[in-house]
Amino acid sequence: MNADAASHAAHPPHLAHHFENSTQQYESGKLGMWLFLATELLMFGGLFCAYAIFRGNYPEMFAYGSQFLDAKMGGINTIVLICSSLTMAWAVRAAQLGQKALLMTMLSLTLLCAFGFMGIKYVEYSAKFEHGLLWGTNYRAQVGHGEHGADAGHADAGHAEAGSADAGPADAGHGTEAGMADAGHAAAPTGDAAHAPVVDAAPFEAAWETPEKSLVKPAAEAPAGLATPHAEKKGRHANDPVTPPANPHIFFGIYFAMTGLHGIHVLAGMIVITALLINAARNKYSPEYYTPVDLVGLYWHIVDMIWIFLFPLLYLI
After folding, report:
1. For residue range 200-229, what is the model confidence (pLDDT) as tens digits?
2. Fewer Cβ atoms within 10 A, N terminus or C terminus of the chain?
3. Which 3 state secondary structure label does DSSP give 99?
4. What are the residues facing 286 on neighbouring strands?
């Protein structure tokens, strides 16, 4: 009993009994974390494969859907996560040096960056739900022609009807030729409608009937985007909003699947970083034992790296 008590007393509090020393425990923990992160990459890899397949087959769907994503917000989130990677790496270094105050400061800054990321993502998601830009059968797009929205479309229709009604008395007073001229003026678009992009919907009507085939040539054969050779003649530019292609809900399904799963991982990281912060306040980490901080740092860097891929694929390309 005395020998066992002495052996137990010599055993560090942080060292599990099935490890011979702290180095063995640290290396085992790090190997386990890398295996876990490998499974995470495999899970996201399936989503990246789905993205590649659908984007290759239906580029017009992604070109249309991406115009409803806010690249500025996505860019801010990218900067926020990169800064959080810096503070997390700094926290690991502080733990290695036994600098408790610096460790808690860096963990707090990392947590603050994570809250900022989720806050911006909440704003983005709220806009998508408000406009019905969702996945599957939940897709109920509340956007009108171009950037003016559904309300602008109804307003333009109202002006057109009003113009037609006013044309009636003019027809009676000025004869057939004058009536035709007045009707022509009434049919002319006014206000926002005069600047609305003119879209040739004929190429996309076929896509609605046969959605299994893309009508946009690969980038190697034609310029990227949805502009057609006669787009400029019709007054439309390559960056103007276009008629929705077939199955736009697939794009938003991929968007929510990829960014939503990533958001869950950010939320999980926030929970474990909070646990690190509590344990750091209780003096549980030292230069001899900082394994949890190091392992959470590895996890956080992988989460940041995944977003660095998601941002350009969904928002920029």
Report:
1. 444 434 444 444 444 444 444 434 444 433
2. N
3. coil
4. 289
pLDDT of residue 52: 94
Q: What angle do helix axes 248-281 and 291-311 make, rounded to 10 degrees?
A: 160
Classified as helix, coil or strand, 286 is strand
pLDDT at 57 over 70: yes
Give the pair of three-digit tokens for residue 196. 């609305």
- Cβ-in-10-Å burial (0-12, 13-18, 19+) of 92 comes to buried
Which two structure tokens, joined as six digits, stand for 122? Answer: 């909440």
Predicted pLDDT of residue 189: 47
CB-CB contact of 48 with 40 (8 Å): no
Measured distance CA(225)–CA(221) in Å, rounded: 12
Q: Helix or strand or coil: residue 299?
A: helix
Task: State pTM to two decimals.
Answer: 0.67
Helix (H, G, I), strand (E, B) or coil at 233: coil
DSSP 8-state code for residue 234? T
Cβ proximity of 132 and 141 under 8 Å: yes
Average pLDDT along the chain = 75
CB 280 within 8 A of CB 104: yes
Residue 211's pLDDT is 44
pLDDT in tens, 278-293: 999 999 999 989 999 9
**Residue 144 neighbours by CB under 8 Å, 6+ apart:** 150, 151, 152, 153, 154
* pLDDT greater than 50 at residue 198: no
Nearest CA-CA partner of 134 in 264, 256, 314:
256
Kindly state the average pLDDT of the residues 137-163.
Answer: 50
What 8-state DSSP symbol labels residue 198?
Answer: P
CB-CB contact of 86 with 106 (8 Å)? no
